[in-house]
Specification:
Layout: H1 9-108, E1 113-121, E2 124-131, H2 134-145, E3 150-167, E4 170-183, H3 186-197
Antiparallel strand pairs: 1-2, 2-4, 3-4
Length: 198
């Protein structure tokens, strides 16, 4: 006699398939969550590592900036020391210059002319005095211009003034004058001539 299966096998098969699908979906979801979590943890680790490196770099940059500031300060000090050294060297060089300057003025002053004041402001010397004529002042300017220790003789004023000095029992008319000269040296003049020639 044939056997007939009266159990609801279709429903059972359907339930088994749904159960399997649910398990597979759960496993896939778990794997996806695991992958996302792993990627998140990996990225967080990389970000933390990069932030740590950035902090280290920032710290090193701050140290380097401090050293640069220190170096800049030392450079400024060095420049100030060089300037001081140059000033001292200039003063040492200019010591004998005033002697040469006075000697040159005395040597190159023509007769019939005398000075009543000499004022020095840095390298510029202002000479005032009296001369018997404008020609003598012109000769003084020419003579001073030919000196190695003097440059830029500049004539400013000349005015007639009665001077009660007697020369051969006659009253002498003398003109008051004012000129500027600049203190120099043979080396300085040579450099100036060389640069103007170029």
């Amino acid at each position: 006699m044939p056997q007939i299966n009266l159990l609801p096998w279709r429903e059972t098969l359907k339930e088994e398939r749904e159960t399997r699908f649910g398990i597979m979906t759960g496993i896939a979801l778990f794997c996806a969550v695991l992958v996302v979590l792993s990627v998140h943890l990996f990225m967080s680790g990389e970000i933390a590592y990069q932030q740590k490196r950035n902090k280290y770099l920032d710290k090193q940059i701050a140290i380097a900036d401090e050293k640069i500031k220190e170096i800049d300060g030392l450079e400024e000090e060095k420049q100030q020391m060089i300037l001081r050294k140059e000033v001292i060297e200039d003063l040492e060089k200019s010591r004998p210059q005033i002697v040469h300057l006075i000697e040159e003025i005395v040597k190159r002053t023509p007769e019939g002319l005398y000075f009543d004041s000499l004022i020095q402001k840095k390298d510029v010397i202002i000479l005032t005095g009296f001369a018997q004529s404008q020609n003598r002042v012109s000769r003084l300017l020419t003579n001073l211009g030919n000196s190695e220790w003097i440059t830029k003789p500049t004539f400013y004023t000349i005015k007639e003034a009665k001077n009660k000095k007697k020369a051969k029992n006659k009253e002498m008319n003398m003109g008051a004058f004012k000129i500027d000269i600049t203190q120099s040296s043979p080396e300085k003049k040579a450099r100036e001539n060389k640069s103007s020639a170029e």
